[in-house]
Design a protein that fits this description.
about 400 residues; alpha/beta; Alkaline Phosphatase, subunit A; 2 domains; five-stranded antiparallel β-sheet; 13 strands
Length: about 400
């Protein structure tokens, strides 16, 4: 048996008045998902355990079959693994976003204009991170360039620090004063954030972006702290050889920690616009070349939700249907046995522009064992009528072990 998970990050949503109180998933034109849903097991699953923040780190950990209550150590350590940064046992890693803040002179008076600096390119951001490392890096703090606006800062021997930090995508268009680093050691992080503004303000990269009418990266924003993770092997857990196809360091790092083979797809950005077909092609090729399991992660719907753009989210879902699910269906005859699970890791409602902890819809298609009593429709409303999994780790067990 071959297994494929298609994780459409943040695809779940709420009804939107402008489109007849439908969700983007209900409104989108999805003929391939509709076809697959006719013989699929459909229901709802709780991906976020009670008491945990509804982040992609916690959610993807759950979907992959690992209980966050046992394995979660923070978001940034997973990204560090993906980036090849070796954390010491007492090191603390932080996500280091390049963000666009408003231009008030007092830092506390600024507003979060853009959590992604206009989805700044990796080449541009690498130059900015290098400048920050040259000015602010030392034996204690080290900055590492990642992808687009997503980067890493490591505090050597900072594991005993006390922090209360806020994701920047949770405060779009808000004054940042109430969301600045807090806790006993928060001042050290705030100091780095403030100092970064002077370094970035007139950097040639930002000057060029302003000339092009693009948002400049005016500050770093530190959040998502955590220490070195230790996951059990996916192969030991499920007796399957697997791969992870992902453009974001978080999911790639999670896969590496679980012993999955990371697959890089040129043109896959981790943004709204990405190489949907290239990622689907890579996932199918992995299965055809001997892997038993592939975890295919697509960030696009989540980014659209964070931007609050309904039309963009609908478009993103339609690309998943056409270029990913469509390719899977077109090559179904290449496999004797194939089981496919489609789901989001969490909801990212366009009205809220951030994640929620609501249950999300899942769909499991089995080529050789069609579900004869299927609900026949895959969306947030229809799936409520199906089987509910209160713990997402049980869903992965069901997906792989239920025959």
């Amino acid at each position: 048996m071959k297994y494929l998970v298609i994780l459409a990050d943040g695809m779940g949503d709420y009804g939107i008045e402008a489109i007849g109180n439908k969700t983007p998933l209900q409104y989108a034109h999805t003929p391939n998902i509709d076809k697959m849903s006719q013989t699929s097991l459909i229901g709802m699953v709780q991906t976020i355990p009670q008491g945990f923040p509804p982040g992609s780190d916690v959610a993807n950990l759950s979907v992959m079959g690992y209980d966050p209550r046992k394995y979660y150590t923070g978001r940034s350590p997973l990204e560090a693994v993906s980036m090849g940064v070796n954390l010491g046992p007492n090191d603390m890693a932080f996500r280091c976003n390049l963000v666009t803040l408003s231009d008030e002179s007092e830092y506390e008076a600024k507003t979060m204009v853009d959590y992604s600096s206009g989805e700044i390119s990796s080449a541009e951001s690498a130059r900015l991170i290098d400048a920050l490392q040259a000015e602010l890096g030392n034996d204690i703090f080290h900055f590492y360039a990642g992808i687009s606006y997503r980067h890493l800062m490591v505090w050597k021997d900072g594991i005993n620090g006390s922090f209360r930090l806020t994701p920047p995508h949770d405060i779009s268009s808000r004054k940042i004063a109430d969301y600045l680093p807090q806790g006993d050691d928060g001042d050290a992080l705030l100091d780095l954030m403030k100092k970064s503004t002077a370094i970035l303000k007139n950097h040639p990269v930002n000057e060029e972006r302003r000339r092009k009418g693009l948002n400049p990266a005016t500050s770093v924003w530190l959040w998502g702290e955590g220490s070195k993770p230790a996951l059990s092997s996916f192969a030991d857990k499920y007796n399957l050889k697997g791969s992870v196809v992902a453009a974001v360091d978080l999911v790639k790092g999670l896969g590496i920690c679980a012993g999955l083979k990371p697959v890089i797809v040129p043109g896959a950005t981790g943004g709204v616009e990405t190489d949907f077909a290239g990622k689907a092609r890579a996932a199918l090729d992995e299965l055809k070349s001997g892997q038993d399991f592939v975890y295919l992660h697509i960030e696009s719907p989540d980014e659209a939700g964070h931007q609050g753009k309904m039309e963009t989210k609908v478009w993103s879902i339609e690309q998943v249907d056409k270029l990913v699910v469509g390719m899977v269906l077109s090559e179904m005859d290449s496999f004797d046995d194939l089981r496919v699970m489609l789901l989001p890791d969490h909801r990212t409602p366009v009205a809220l522009r951030t994640h929620t902890s609501d249950p999300v819809p899942y769909m499991i298609f089995d080529k050789t064992r069609p579900c004869l009593n299927s609900i026949g429709k895959y969306d947030e409303e229809a799936a409520v009528e199906g089987k509910f999994f209160p713990d997402c780790t049980i869903l992965m067990d069901h997906f792989i072990k239920e025959h």
